């Protein structure tokens, strides 16, 4: 197998965590005899410093010619005075549009080893396993018109969706639910917004093509509450862009840290992978960032772009085993709770070592 991966480490802690993710992918390739080719290009603030633009043409061209794109994080406070279309985050939005991925997959899993990290009681979070399917190319983030009229003191954004946009992301959610617990919860605000009324009607229409999948609907405010009260009741959560952004970050409470959350954006010509956390410039370069979100993102790349399900599961199992052994980066340490503090690089090394042991064992069993 041959796979071309563009790596955009980006800003803040991006280079630190991406380095560990690439190390995991390289190890999988070596053990499996796969040809993974990595090319690193600038994006975000890193690119602004080098080229004056958050998404250089060379980076975009390389992304479009790749089989997958792996990002670290984008964003830097030093560019806050720039207009929105020239800030680091604009490069990420432009890349998403160019690659065409419309379905953002964000899993949130309750690790037993991290149950003490959540402010929720273990009996509430135990067994929670949620997959958010967030529409990524529509809604308020991309709708026109949008503006800030400083003279009048007014600003406006436009939430807009078409039926076809809702249909395609809904199909992704229902297809994925078919391989999980066969339930989709569609989130909207149909009691207030016409866009949400279109969303709900269209999702109901798509659901008729999936008779084996249970569909229910929740208003976004109610969903935010139920995610904290009864997270085990959710399987696949389908939602539009803004609501999905907020709810999936809220679900970090279930996992124990935002640094544990991976994501994959699929549906376009090239899939895009990035951990959910931001660039965290205040801890950049200190070696204390959590690389597990990036490593779990690498597992999603193996699953959705390389088609290597067994290897993806091996990476996810390696992460669980390292956590069960009590190793913790700074964000996972809690006062009064046991845990051995390790650096970003050391956590990556531990997962790498555990993964190699798992693959060795698997290959030995196959050789018998």
Give a verbal description of the structure.
With 368 residues, this protein is of the alpha/beta class. The protein has helices spanning 14-32, 45-51, 57-64, 88-99, 122-125, 163-177, 194-207, 220-229, 241-250, 252-255, 292-304, 309-324, 344-367; strands spanning 2-10, 35-40, 68-73, 103-109, 129-135, 147-149, 154-156, 183-188, 214-219, 236-239, 264-266, 271-273, 327-328, 340-341. The strands form three sheets. A ten-stranded mixed sheet has the order 2-1-3-12-11-4-5-10-8-9, with helices on both faces. The protein has a two-stranded antiparallel sheet with strand order 6-7. Strand 8 (183-188), helix 7 and strand 9 (214-219) form a beta-alpha-beta unit. Helix 1 (14-32) packs across helix 11, helix 1 packs parallel to helix 13 (344-367) and helix 6 (163-177) packs across helix 7 (194-207). The radius of gyration is 20 Å and the shape is globular. The model has no long low-confidence stretch (mean pLDDT 95).
């Amino acid at each position: 197998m041959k796979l071309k991966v563009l790596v955009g480490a980006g800003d803040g802690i991006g280079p630190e965590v991406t380095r560990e993710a690439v190390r995991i992918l390289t190890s999988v390739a070596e053990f499996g005899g796969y040809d993974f080719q990595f090319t690193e290009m600038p994006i975000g603030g890193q690119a602004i410093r080098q080229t004056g633009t958050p998404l250089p043409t060379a980076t975009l061209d390389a992304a479009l010619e790749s089989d997958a794109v792996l990002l670290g994080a984008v964003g830097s406070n030093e560019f806050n005075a720039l207009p929105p279309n020239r800030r680091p985050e604009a490069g990420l939005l432009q890349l998403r549009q160019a690659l065409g991925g419309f379905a953002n997959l964000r899993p949130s899993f309750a690790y037993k080893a991290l149950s003490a990290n959540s402010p929720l009681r273990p009996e509430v979070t135990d067994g929670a396993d949620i997959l958010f399917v967030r529409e990524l190319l529509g809604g308020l983030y991309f709708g026109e018109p949008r503006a800030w009229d400083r003279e009048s003191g007014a600003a406006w954004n436009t939430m807009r969706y078409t039926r076809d946009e809702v249909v395609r992301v809904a199909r992704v959610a229902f297809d994925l639910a078919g391989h999980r617990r066969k339930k989709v919860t569609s989130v909207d605000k149909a009691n207030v917004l016409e866009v949400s009324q279109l969303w709900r009607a269209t999702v109901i229409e798509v659901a008729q093509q999936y008779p084996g999948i249970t569909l229910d609907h929740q208003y976004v405010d109610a969903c935010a509450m139920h995610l904290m009260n009864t997270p085990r009741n959710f399987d696949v959560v389908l939602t539009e862009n803004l609501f999905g952004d907020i709810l999936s970050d809220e679900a970090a409470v279930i996992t124990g840290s935002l640094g544990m959350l991976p994501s994959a954006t699929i549906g376009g010509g090239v899939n895009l992978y990035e951990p959910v956390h931001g660039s965290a410039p205040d801890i950049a370069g200190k070696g204390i960032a959590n690389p597990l979100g990036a490593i779990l993102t690498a597992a999603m790349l193996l699953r959705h772009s390389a088609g290597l399900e067994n290897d993806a599961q091996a990476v996810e199992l390696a992460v669980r085993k390292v956590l069960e052994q009590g190793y913790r980066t700074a964000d996972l340490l809690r006062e009064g709770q046991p845990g051995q503090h390790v650096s970003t690089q050391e956590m990556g090394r531990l997962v790498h070592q555990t993964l190699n042991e798992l693959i060795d064992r698997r290959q030995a069993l196959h050789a018998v």
